[in-house]
UniProtKB/TrEMBL annotation, chain A:
GO biological process, one term: protein neddylation
Domain THIF-type NAD/FAD binding fold as annotated: residue spans: 13-532
Superkingdom in the source lineage: Eukaryota
Listed name of the protein: NEDD8-activating enzyme E1 regulatory subunit
Family assignment from sequence similarity: Belongs to the ubiquitin-activating E1 family. ULA1 subfamily.
Role, per record: Regulatory subunit of the dimeric UBA3-NAE1 E1 enzyme. E1 activates NEDD8 by first adenylating its C-terminal glycine residue with ATP, thereafter linking this residue to the side chain of the catalytic cysteine, yielding a NEDD8-UBA3 thioester and free AMP. E1 finally transfers NEDD8 to the catalytic cysteine of UBE2M.
Biological or metabolic pathway of the protein: Protein modification; protein neddylation
GO cellular component: cytoplasm
Pfam name, any one: ThiF
Gene Ontology MF term list: NEDD8 activating enzyme activity
Matches recorded under CDD domains: APPBP1_RUB (cd01493)
Keyword terms: Ubl conjugation pathway
From TrEMBL, chain B:
Gene, per the UniProt record: UBA3
Domain of life: Eukaryota
The keyword Ligase belongs to this UniProt entry's keyword annotation: yes
GO terms classed as biological process: protein neddylation
Protein name, entry field: NEDD8-activating enzyme E1 catalytic subunit
Keywords from the named record: ATP-binding, Ligase, Nucleotide-binding, Signal, Ubl conjugation pathway
Length: 536, 458
């Protein structure tokens, strides 16, 4: 039965396992997320976590379901009206996937913060939806101290808003979209040099010549070039063009002197540009190496930093300034033998380097008195670490307190964005303004038709007091004040659903430690179909 | 352009008033207090950013609820999201079409389906679920493809808008062609009321796109065919004699070994959904790989290659579906192609895809074709299938010679294929074609014949 269950899960989750792998799925199935407020936005986010099989969810909501709630929420019915919203939504959501464990707490977040703030410590991630500013800030502070990631989401009329609050989030498997290959042609390691030297292009049979991997072709011609150019690889366009020409001339000719069809040489010429890129370490990875956590290894150090330190030690010693070899090569025209043996040269070097990195990590472990190799933070053994060494990422988001404090808020970011008065930044300022309105009047502007007109001037006062408090010399057009009164704090299902998808994906990134989360404020403008990310 | 907006989600008072008199009954009996409060704020309140033709009024909701007819093509990942979003936004008259049945691997994102629904038609299960969950919603389903689908289209052309959540380029091109064939031209001028807007898009992993097509006016699917790169097919010599990757080994078994070994009987084709078939391919692929010292063949990879699987998650579909709904709204129409990617943070970008002046589907002008008179018909055939802007699958070519219709080559009927096959080796001159000759080409990628004008090069 266990085997059956396993195959059934593999079948069910097949399409997503191809994205984040079995280890990513395991991380997801071990996660427990908390949702505050089962509004449409909240249930849509949970739906997109329950379908892929998150371990457990807990909804915290003290509200009773209204007719309005049922109208925009797929996970409530008219029978739910009057019931506690957390309970009603949990029933519908649970039904989506029996692998998932659903729980609910019939309590307002504020009450929980009053009576039992440590309630939130148990979660892998807390998602706060449609929270009033005061609750948001209180919760933000509790979660920041506890080190629990906090994702704030909000649908306000035709505006979607997300704010990620996490002190430090590390990623080994960032899955970059367009990664350059790691071929080391500018500084071939010994085994690669030896392998290249087994080829004598000029004396090869035509068939072999046409099926030699382009990497070997480029390496051979590069050797000749460097001998004649003071050991310098071609650097500028002129030199690269001359180098390409050299290769071109190497194409075998037939009896009449015309060049034969040699696709591998065509590939070599096409790849000269990227193949000659200097092997170097990105600034993102450099920053990781220079981080305090990487420098000071203690018994409390998280796995990621231990691994980063292992790589750094390698770079500074055996690697001679370079990362461990990645070990993969792209497919290319070649016969099987030549390709496989070339691939094995890279693979074996990668394994060798990984073993050295592992030794470094081991010695640090011993130095701080740990015996076993830690497998948290994505549970990755050394090999994927080295394969991804060039793409390690760390995301650090500022706290809500820092964003809101007059002393530390990002004035320059806000001001420069507002140079374009229709930038999404104005939507952020309007959200802050309606929060202010709520603080003062215990309601949002324009909820009822008769309020729309009169609330415009009141909301405008809130905007002005906000700008004044932060000494922001920016212009918020009246049109936006009008529009936000028009919204009447509505939560249209479409915008809620968009955020449902966007937020759920960010949650999955946080839980699996794969792919890179945004940093730290995302605004979706459903009027213009645009979006932007700010760091606030 | 403004009149077009009024055809879809953005509503003009006159239109909704005239519709009001044709109210379908039962429109409000399933409603409860406050049900449409969220929606009404956008239909009944004026705002500074709405399109100048948009007039808020209390009739608009009724129009949505009672009259607006939407066709959803595809009830898969995007289709489920679209049905939910439409139903909760007030649309009740929805038709959903899909030719597939439910598979276990759909359940991670196609949330209108449950394990007990596996094997049942997607369109039917989806429509049932939506109608039950959203009272008053009247989604009709059609489990069909091919001729039944063509018949359905011939009867049902009064959709206000069509949204496509398809997983094949051919199907998209077909719908595209169908809508183009409905266009009415009066003295060469397009009658805009014959336009049915098409919203299309797709997702793949963490990437997706949504686009608006106003057939006859804006870029159609075929105008931008290069945006759909042809599938990766490895060269035969690589597969047959010099494999390097595990994928090459799998393709070898699929393309060459299966037809030879006929492991499950004569004439039994490889069924990617049959685990026994995949298991067989997997084992043979391992053997093939071992011969060449290639590592990396797994069951998952085998299935992925055989079925050309595209990874998919619920979250991307949720995002893209909304972009469809918002693509044509009271705030204006998306102009006209939006891409989304949330691999690293979140990224959206919109650009205007341009209508191609000589598009083979929508330009109404014969396509230019240049060949030497000594070129063979095979070369013409290759051009039709290999060109990135045509990407035909199995074109049938006919022309008029001596006042009579002549089939030059037809693949789709075996007896005619055999009869016309020798023409492939003949030159255009030998076939009697002249400079300026018009060729009519039919293909599965388009419901309408495409006309080509042959120009001889020296």
């Amino acid at each position: 039965i266990m085997a059956d269950q396993k195959t059934n899960k593999e079948q069910r989750y097949d399409r997503q396992l191809r994205l984040w792998g079995d280890h990513g799925q395991e991380a997801l199935e071990n996660a427990h997320t908390c949702l505050l407020n089962a509004t449409a936005t909240g249930t849509e986010i949970l739906k997109n976590l329950i379908l892929p099989g998150i371990g457990a969810f807990t909804i915290v909501d003290g509200h009773r379901v209204t007719g309005e709630d049922v109208g925009n929420n797929f996970f409530l019915s008219s029978d739910s009206i009057g019931k506690n919203r957390a309970q009603a939504a949990t029933e519908f959501l649970q039904e989506l996937n029996s692998d998932v464990s659903g729980n609910f707490v019939e309590e307002s977040p504020d009450k929980l913060l009053d009576n039992d703030p440590e309630f939130f410590h148990r979660f892998s991630l807390v998602i706060g939806v449609q929270l009033p500013e005061s609750t948001c800030l209180r919760l933000g502070s509790v979660l920041w101290s506890a080190g629990v990631p906090f994702l704030v989401c909000r649908t306000y009329g035709l505006v979607g808003y997300m704010r990620l609050v996490v002190k430090e989030h590390t990623v080994v498997e960032s899955h970059p979209d367009n990664a350059l290959e790691d071929l080391r042609l500018d500084q071939p390691f010994t085994e690669l040099k030896n392998h290249i030297s087994t080829y004598d292009l000029d004396s090869m049979e035509k068939k072999d010549h046409s099926h030699t991997p382009w990497i070997v072709v480029v390496a051979k011609y590069l050797e000749n070039w460097c001998n004649e150019h003071d050991l310098q690889v071609p650097k500028n366009y002129k030199e690269k063009e001359a180098f390409r020409q050299l290769i071109r001339e190497g194409i075998r000719k037939n009896e009449s002197g015309a060049p034969e069809e040699e696709e591998n040489f065509d590939e070599a010429i096409k790849n000269v540009n990227t193949a000659l890129n200097p092997t170097k370490i990105s600034s993102a990875v450099d920053d990781i190496f220079n981080s305090e956590q990487c420098e000071n290894i203690t018994s409390q150090t998280a796995a990621f930093w231990l691994m980063a330190r292992g790589v750094r030690d390698f770079v500074q010693n055996e690697g001679n300034g370079s990362l461990p070899v990645r070990g993969t090569i792209p497919d290319m025209i070649a016969d099987s033998d030549k390709f496989i043996s070339l691939q094995n040269v890279y693979r074996e070097k990668a394994l060798q380097d990984a073993a050295v990195v592992a030794k470094h990590i081991q010695s640090h472990l011993q130095a701080v008195g740990k015996v076993t190799y830690p497998f948290n933070a994505g549970g990755l053994p050394v090999s994927p670490l080295c394969k991804n060494a060039a793409f390690l990422r760390v995301v650090r988001c500022r706290s809500l307190a820092e964003e809101y404090s007059v002393d530390s808020f990002h004035k320059d970011t806000i001001t420069s964005c507002m140079d374009s008065p229709d930038s999404e930044m104005v939507l952020y300022l309007m959200l802050r303004a309606v929060d202010r309105f709520y603080q003062q009047h215990s309601r949002y502007p324009g909820v009822y038709n008769y309020q729309v007109e009169e609330d415009i001037s009141t909301l405008k006062l809130c905007v002005n007091s906000l700008l004044q408090e932060y000494s922001l010399n920016v212009n918020v057009k009246d049109d936006y004040v009008h529009e936000f009164c028009r919204y009447g704090a509505a939560e249209p299902h479409t915008v809620a659903s968009f955020l449902g998808g966007a937020a759920a994906q960010e949650a999955i990134k946080l839980i699996t430690h794969q792919f890179v989360p945004f940093n730290n404020t995302f605004i979706y403008n459903a009027m213009a179909q645009t979006s932007t990310t700010f760091q606030l | 352009m403004p009149e077009l907006i009024s055809l879809s989600l953005s509503l003009s008072l006159s239109l909704s008033l005239s519709i009001h008199s044709m109210l379908v009954d039962g429109g409000t009996t399933s409603d409860w207090q406050g049900r449409w409060d969220h929606v009404k704020k956008f239909l009944e309140r004026a705002g500074p950013f709405t399109h100048p033709d948009f007039e808020p009024n209390t009739e608009s909701l009724q129009f949505l609820l009672d009259t607006c007819k939407i066709l959803v093509v595809g009830a898969g990942g995007l289709g489920c999201e679209l049905l939910k979003d439409l139903a909760l936004s007030g649309f009740r008259h929805i038709h959903v079409v899909d030719m597939d049945t439910i598979d276990v691997s759909n359940l991670n994102r196609q949330f209108l389906f449950r394990p007990q629904d596996v094997g049942r038609p997607k369109a039917e299960v989806a429509a049932d679920f939506i109608n039950r969950r959203v009272p008053g919603c009247r989604t009709c389903s059609l489990f069909a493809s091919g001729d039944r689908l063509i018949f359905f289209f011939s009867l049902n052309t009064e959709f206000h808008i069509i949204v496509c959540g398809l997983d094949s380029v051919i199907a998209r091109r077909w719908i595209n062609g169908m809508l183009l064939s409905l266009l009415v031209y009066e003295d060469g001028v397009l009658n805009t009321s014959s336009i049915i807007p098409l919203i299309d898009g797709g997702t793949e992993g963490f990437k997706g796109n949504a686009r608006v097509i106003l057939p006859g006016m804006t870029a159609c699917i075929d105008c931008t065919l290069e945006l759909y790169p042809p599938q990766i097919n490895f060269p035969m010599c690589t597969i047959a004699s010099m494999p390097r990757l595990p994928e090459h080994c799998i393709e070898y078994v699929r393309i060459l070994q299966w037809p030879k070994d006929k492991p499950f009987g004569d004439g039994v084709g490889l069924d990617g959904d049959d685990p026994k078939h995949i298991q067989w391919v997997f084992q043979r692929s391992l053997e093939r790989a071992a011969q060449f010292n290639i590592t990396g063949v797994t069951y998952r990879l085998t299935q992925g290659v055989v079925k050309r699987i595209i990874p998919a998650v619920a979250s991307t579909n949720a995002v893209i579906a909304v972009l469809y709904i918002c693509a044509d709204s009271a705030y204006g129409t998306l102009n006209n192609y939006l891409v989304f990617n949330d691999v690293d943070g979140l990224y959206t970008y919109t650009f205007e895809a341009e209508k191609k002046e000589n598009c083979s589907a929508c330009s109404q002008v014969p396509q230019d074709m240049h060949f030497s008179p000594s070129a063979t018909l095979q070369e013409v055939l290759n051009y039709l299938t290999d060109s990135t802007s045509l990407q035909m699958k199995s074109p049938d070519i006919t022309t008029t010679l001596d006042g009579r219709n002549k089939t030059l080559y037809l693949q789709t009927i075996a007896s005619i294929e055999e009869r016309t096959r020798p023409n492939l080796g003949r030159t255009l001159k030998e076939l009697g074609l002249v400079d300026g000759q018009e060729l009519a080409v039919a293909d599965v990628t388009t419901p309408q014949t495409v006309l080509f004008k042959l120009s001889f090069t020296s």
